[in-house]
Amino acid sequence: MNTYIFHKSNSKLLHFLIALNFIIPILSIEGFLPWVMCIFSIYKSINALNKYSKPTIKIVNYLVLNLIIVVLYNYIASIATSYVLNLFLS
What stretches pass through the bilayer (predicted)? Predict the structure, then answer.
């Protein structure tokens, strides 16, 4: 009997973590990079789900990596936008 909550046979939570990757580019600044990271993260998470018996750490790592890269992208894009606007308005 598998009592481990993140085991592949009880993978509804793991499927939710994979689907959670879709929310990140929707909430970010429009761009190509967030969607590419989303697709990459989902692809690698599904591969980890099919390959390992306990893929929780891999899936969470891909989710966190996706989140960090998109947040950095949004931060850099906002800094660049404010810099360009200051150049045009001054």
Answer: 16-43, 63-85
